[in-house]
Amino acid sequence: MESAAIHSAKHILLVIGIILGAGSFSGILASKFKVPDVVVFLLIGIGLGPEMAGMIDVKADSAFNQLILIFGSCYILFDGGASLRLKVLKEVWITIVVIATIGVVITVAIVGFAATQILGMSLLTALLFGAVVASTDPATLVPVFKQVRIKDRVAQTVMSESAFNDAMGAIVTFALLGVIMGTGGEFSLGRASFDLVSNALIGVVVGGVLGYAAAFLIAHEKFSFLLEYAPLVTLMSVAGAYMSAENFHASGFMAVFVFGIVLGNKDAFGFEMGHQEAEKLEDFILTTSLIMRMFIFILLGSQVDFAMMGKYLWSGIALVAVLMLVARPATVFLCALPDRRAKWSLKEMLFMCWTRETGVIPGALAGILVGMKVPGAEIIASITFITILMTIIIQATTTRWLAGKLGLLLDK
Q1: Which of 16, 256, 264, 367 is deepest in the core (most CB within 10 A)?
Q2: How does pLDDT run across 140-156, given as a tens digit for each residue?
Q3: Which residue ranges form the domains of the chain, and what is each CATH number?
């Protein structure tokens, strides 16, 4: 008779095999129809989940699912950071900082007010929903911009924003949660601002130090004794950057993103790899990121609760419309237009208005609220999932088309 541990291990192995097989097939479909692969992964996951085929049944709060969400998001975020170039970021850093901080607050306020009107929520609960869905998703955006090549500064601004606004979204969420649950006292703007700055700075320092150390060990002219193990160094360092920052109560996602930026720009720090070694490392990163995307979005799709979504479907669609068509444009124009250094064109800002996919981090925050039995958490979780589905399916799918219409594509 099998022990529970062996039975669980066999179930996980079966799920892994199904996801890899279905993911490979989905990748072929995505390539054939020229759509971002995350969209197909999500739809295939819905089809394989317990609500339909029943081939994948992994609970959202299981250790396996949480491991995939955390490490997968981290590695995809690292990959996104590694693809950015410092010379481009120098031009648009003001927009990135403003849109990832003040922009999140603008989104929370607009979506929160809309939720009070559409769902009749109390103001605090409505603002909590706004905070959960306010951050954009690097796990979605990074792969999309890997496949849809557009003007560098636009793509890198949107990807950078998605990394930095995760910390802001989480801080606002937990600040409001403390007030609602009666554990955080009254909301303090000063304390929230301090938390944001300290979260960001510690994450930047941790990611920067580990990124420099990794570059030194794999690309230094004399001391690169780990050059042969460069792919493994990325795995160890991504996990190490995330856990180190979390141990300092800072943003682990910020740390892995900065780690990626430093390692990806190692030549700016005087470190260069040979062509063969660099190609080997790049192939490993691309393959690992693809596998992580498969697991994250197929699992995410398999966990759709159609009953709960159906209950709040129309009100959810209305709120997502406000998020996509009112809150996001207001955020982009209020935060990017004043940046005279970047000199954004109308076409660039219109494109940024449309690229705000919601994904893993909002889904995880909603799951935390449900686990804590926060008042209104089930409604928030249901509409958050509607938001994830709508933004990924509608916005990610139309990214290439819109970029082409606005003349921002590089691969015409």
Answers
A1: 256
A2: 787 788 778 888 889 88
A3: 6-405 (1.20.1530.20)
